[in-house]
């Protein structure tokens, strides 16, 4: 009788230990970090507009959504709002800022390509023109929204300046075209304009 009780007691202890081990393993598997690729997730609620690197945190996902973004670069624009913790996907990004109603898109070549590195789509800028070295530049337009900065412009950065596309009125577009035909254009940056 005692032998049977001892065997039964040992079996109960073995079953209890095995059950506890399974419970510990299950808890570990349920709480361990995902092993999948790292994607960008909104660090806070975001509104549409130019992106800032601090807007997102890298998080590993077992099964990331289709088109999940792993890195961002300067000049990218969020097309729609995002909630904190939501993964960023390619369809949420614009490659240019939307053209406001009643405006036209005016391509303008800025003489200093390095200055263009300071702005992104959505930035608000002014444009200055100088026709003769040594004379002061004159403001041609102000409060213009940058629509797009072509990727080839960012990569080349040569002596020919950098091309940007601005939202302007027809009158402003004509003035900018006349100014760049015989002068060198530069920019001023409005600090409250999305840079």
UniProtKB/TrEMBL annotation:
Keywords: Cell projection, Cilium, Flagellum, Signal. CDD domains: SAF_CpaB_FlgA_like. Residues 37-94 form the SAF domain. SMART domains: SAF. The keyword Protein biosynthesis does not apply. Residues 1-29 form the signal peptide. The keyword Thylakoid does not apply. Pfam families: SAF. This is Flagellar biosynthesis protein FlgA. It comes from Nonomuraea longispora.
